[in-house]
């Protein structure tokens, strides 16, 4: 018995719209719940809602309602549940996901819900533009990738991974930044007020290949394990470079003079961030492994240690502003084999399943909210800047892969051929991390809205075109010819998205 | 290789003390985190902590620290992790848990940590005295009990369960309330300002048999399945009565005149609360069962539906101020068999394990925080009132079980014998729900602190004496003779606890 995906999608939309209407405006953070009771005192405050107020106020009420008390957990539960429905909906009607990847569908549904919320002047929950993303939504995804990373192939390719992660990200950031600065000098585009440092800062944000987006393309390791390892490893380990470059350019943007010692400190900071992240990861990984030696009598809480230690590694790295992604990935890589030997079979199954579950639902929510906030955010459009951003993002990625592969291939046992390089270049997707980072730019940057719009365009472009292209990559790797027909569908999607953005801007 | 429990306990204490000292005072809720960055902007605000500030402020910092941003998830993770360590510690040195149940150990450790925090003037996190308890800590435990309740025996005993839950709780509340009011008339005790309504309100709070505490005694269904079902069912289903009585006496305490229509409305409310709770539970249970028919392609998120629907049932019941415990238990009972047929084997294992895990860690945290806030709360001691509260709680429970059993036995296939009745009476433990409820009493009640102290005493008494007595119950049921030696140990514990309370009060 199949429920048509269209009907289900419609149901999801209606529920979203209703929830959007019902739950009122939510700004950055909802008001703190005060100490309350399980049981509503019958004498309710005058502003408390009552579903069926009694005729005489003095009598004991039989029906009462108290929404603010449960607002936060209720809304979180509703969003998670509705994201899960969306996933079911996509898969119930199987052919949809053959033509259009899940990430694109999610963004599209997000765009529609965002449009509905925007039209009724509702604020979406501040998920991607605040700590919620970095502290609660990103860790499960990164843990998922780290925990299921095949360890041996990973360490066999560690040199290549670090090469692309460090040098590749530097290449992209500086290349894109300089090119955009050159574009800014052209008066016709009207962006002369963006200086070099701001361009470099923006370039850093959009250079980082994103694990969330890459997961959509390289879901299946068996496509090409070498490729998967390198792209995935790159997107996890370039966080260290992104952190340092972001800090450096942010700092430099506010300082009139850049001294040589600052460059040296930047390099020093890179080692602190990278090695510090890995150090904490290894520390917590071994601690988790050690702890599971003593859990033979408390089997029911064994999985908890894995989650707590990984999360702690992430948080401690955040505390010291070092690479939290590297910390949690290294922690997962370190502890995995020891833990799976120590814990019971049921705990092992539970850990794997829960890690996958949390990663999956986080990814779904992120793509969905990407769509929602695309509509509800204020945009600033500039054809020249945005088109060239897209162009340079592609060109520098492609060039970078080409050049770097030429240099690294002699050192590899299995050199990358042209197909692999195509896959590497195409697999460089940008996603929610760039989006969240651009929101955290200081408000002193005048053209912040333009950067936000440009980042969204890059993300949507890579997810809609390149993800389909990623499927094409898989097809190319498998020598199939579906590329041309699917590209047609993609063009339609991109046009639709551009149209929507343009409408919002106007 | 065994690490002595004493050393581990010492380590736990030191870690707790350090975390208590390090993390500063935490009031009701910590300040909201503002939108932040993964990457700390190098130019930190003057009030931002920096671990190793550079000599010249103008240079890029290499080490930075930003604690407020991660404070909430970090502290939650630390408390959960340390509670887990405590559980490991108890079980590593096996003999401890033979003599002293885990709940007592946890409360004791909580008392010690509370003493340390009190001495350095630290506020413990407001876990038991706010929404956190009812919205986040109680649902996992109740879900655990509901999910693993043996369904057939439960429905075979449903009449007895409801009989004890409804009539038994009414009997206890009114009996204890009236008796305490009689005590209040005696001038010597100095509690004449507590009127009848306040006494009844307090009696309602301490009458409710608590699922958290009962879990400690009746961990093992095989001890006596009938007994387990009845006590457990009672403690889950008396929530409806508690909700209504609490509301009613709260309402009445503020109204000078009680009209007959209010009594009628109270009865009506009971049916709304009870049947409404069950209704929502059944609704969400069937919705969950139906949803899992379509999850064959999204196996990784199957467990999520179970958790989300159960939690939603709880929250919606809370929204309408009806019995949320009944809602979530009914939901779990309804959906369990359908869901376990529909989902994959791995999802099934994961669901069971995660439910047990969350219930276990919630229970651990609750007992622990019971100990902590026992010390850090302000108390008001009154020998007369408190001793008589303890006495009446025991006497009315015993009498109630006796009388109610005599009435219900003719209707039972397997009547309760004297041992069973002893077990039923002894199994009536009070726990954290009473504690959380007493905190939510309105501040207009003058002797609120006395009620808090009295509730704590009842809880500690039942947990320390009766839990051991519960083990004795098991032993009595198995005809063993360990009772006398263990009772001696219990007396020591109670003396210790009383001494600690007295010190705090003075």
Key features of this structure:
506 residues; homodimer; mainly alpha; Na+/H+ antiporter like fold
Describe this structure in words.
Chains A, B: One of its GO terms (molecular function) is sodium:proton antiporter activity. Chains A, B: It is found in: Membrane. Chains A, B: This is Sodium/hydrogen exchanger. Chains A, B: The chain crosses the membrane at residues 97-120, 132-149, 161-188, 200-218, 227-249, 269-290, 311-335, 355-376, 383-404, 424-442, 449-467, 487-505. 2 copies of one chain form a homodimer. The first copy, chain A, is mainly α and 506 residues long. Chain A has one domain: Up-down Bundle (Na+/H+ antiporter like fold), CATH 1.20.1530. In chain A, 72% of the residues lie in helices and 0% in strands. The longest helix of chain A is centred in the middle third of the chain and has 32 residues, at 260-291. Residues 1-57 and 469-488 of chain A have low confidence and may be disordered. Chains A and B meet through helix 2, helix 5, helix 10, helix 11 and helix 12 of A and helix 2, helix 5, helix 10, helix 11 and helix 12 of B.
SSE order and pairing:
The structure is a homodimer of 506-residue chains.
Chain A: H1 5-22, H2 67-92, H3 95-99, H4 102-119, H5 131-147, H6 151-156, H7 158-184, H8 196-207, H9 211-217, H10 225-254, H11 260-291, H12 302-319, H13 324-342, H14 345-376, H15 383-408, H16 418-426, H17 432-439, H18 448-477, H19 483-505
Helix pairs in contact in A: 1-2, 1-4, 2-14, 4-14, 5-13, 5-14, 7-8, 7-10, 7-15, 8-10, 8-17, 9-18, 10-11, 10-13, 11-12, 11-13, 12-13, 12-14, 15-16, 15-18, 16-18, 17-18, 18-19
Domain Cation/H+ exchanger transmembrane (chains A, B): 81-466
GO molecular function (chains A, B): potassium:proton antiporter activity; sodium:proton antiporter activity
Signal peptide (chains A, B): 1-27
């Amino acid at each position: 018995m199949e429920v048509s995906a269209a009907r289900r999608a419609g149901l999801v939309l209606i529920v979203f719209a209703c929830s959007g209407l019902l739950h009122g405006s939510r700004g950055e953070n909802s008001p703190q719940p005060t100490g309350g009771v399980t049981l509503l005192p019958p004498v309710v405050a005058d502003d408390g809602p009552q579903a069926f107020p009694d005729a005489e106020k003095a009598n004991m009420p039989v029906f009462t309602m108290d929404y603010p008390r449960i607002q936060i957990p209720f809304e979180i539960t509703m969003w998670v549940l509705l994201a899960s429905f969306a996933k079911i909906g996509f898969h119930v009607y199987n052919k949809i996901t053959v033509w259009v990847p899940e990430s694109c569908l999610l963004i599209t549904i997000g765009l529609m819900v965002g449009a509905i919320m925007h039209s009724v002047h509702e604020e979406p929950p501040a998920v991607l533009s605040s700590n919620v993303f970095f502290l609660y939504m990103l860790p499960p995804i990164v843990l998922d990738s780290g925990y299921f990373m095949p360890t041996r192939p990973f360490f066999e390719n560690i040199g290549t991974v670090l090469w692309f992660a460090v040098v590749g990200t530097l290449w992209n950031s500086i290349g894109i930044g300089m090119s955009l600065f050159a574009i800014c000098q052209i008066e016709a585009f009207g962006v002369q007020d963006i200086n070099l440092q701001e361009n470099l800062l923006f370039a850093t944000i959009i250079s980082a290949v994103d694990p969330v987006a890459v997961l959509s393309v390289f879901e299946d390791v068996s496509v090409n394990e070498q490729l998967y390892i390198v792209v995935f490893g790159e997107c996890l380990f370039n966080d260290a470079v992104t952190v340092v470059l972001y800090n450096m350019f942010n700092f430099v943007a506010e300082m009139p003079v850049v001294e040589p010692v600052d460059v040296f400190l930047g390099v020093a900071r890179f080692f602190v961030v990278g090695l510090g992240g890995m150090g904490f990861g290894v520390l917590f990984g071994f601690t988790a492994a050690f702890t599971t030696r003593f859990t033979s009598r408390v089997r029911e809480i064994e999985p908890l240690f894995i989650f707590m230690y990984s999360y702690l590694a992430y948080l401690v790295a955040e505390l010291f502003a070092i690479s939290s992604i590297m910390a949690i990935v290294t922690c997962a890589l370190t502890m995995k084999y020891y833990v799976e030997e120590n814990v019971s079979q049921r705990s092992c199954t539970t850990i794997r399943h829960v890690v996958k579950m949390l990663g999956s639902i986080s990814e779904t929510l992120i793509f969905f909210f990407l769509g929602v906030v695309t509509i509800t955010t204020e945009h600033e459009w500039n054809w020249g800047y945005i088109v060239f951003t897209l162009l340079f993002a592609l060109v520098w990625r492609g060039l970078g892969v080409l050049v770097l592969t030429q240099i690294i291939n002699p050192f590899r046992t299995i050199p990358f051929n042209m197909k692999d390089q195509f896959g590497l270049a195409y697999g460089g997707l940008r996603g929610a991390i760039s989006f969240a980072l651009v929101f955290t730019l200081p408000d002193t940057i005048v053209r912040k809205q333009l950067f936000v719009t440009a980042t969204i365009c890059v993300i949507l472009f890579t997810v809609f075109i390149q993800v389909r292209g990623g499927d094409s990559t898989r097809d190319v790797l498998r020598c199939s010819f579906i590329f041309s027909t699917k590209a047609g569908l993609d063009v339609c999607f991109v046009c639709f998205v551009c149209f929507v953005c343009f409408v919002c801007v106007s």
